[in-house]
């Protein structure tokens, strides 16, 4: 996956992404509604401040009327970027982004350790969001990661499945606490249960015990 764990510290306004949206007759609000995200999220994508969660890529590409590979190019860092504090953890280039796209559509062949490493970096970003902007800001990204775990856990190669489930357990435990902070106890209980299940399935008994103790 190229330079594993390397993050871009540059952002660039994605004018072509905005152009493709407008060519489809979509406002930022309409695109956000179709993807079930906030308008400010679409604005941040187009401003180059962060990138869509991977599980949104197929639907986003379809809405923009482009192929997956074309979307990868639109989301990749381009010349002329300007420095800014990163609001998310984008991949370091087109090759890495393409690897992620392949891993999420053919996990049995392409899902590997570097993909989990990328997910770990994303999770740390959302944990920082919780500390600075609150649980409601952090939650959508965490749920996106959890969906990626759920959708791929059965298909990934055996050598990485345990690591993916351990990551899923950690993410689910964090989601439970976010929901608890939002006073949504049923959702908090659901994700804490899922964290326990995934930790047990991964053979991570210490983390399973930790979740049970902290509930």
TrEMBL record:
CDD domains in UniProt: HTH_XRE
InterPro entries linked: Cro/C1-type_HTH, Lambda_DNA-bd_dom_sf
Top-rank taxon, per record: Bacteria
Identification of the protein by name: DNA-binding transcriptional regulator, XRE-family HTH domain
HTH cro/C1-type domain segment(s): 17-71
Keyword Cell wall biogenesis/degradation: no
One MF term in the entry's GO annotations: DNA binding
The entry's keywords: DNA-binding
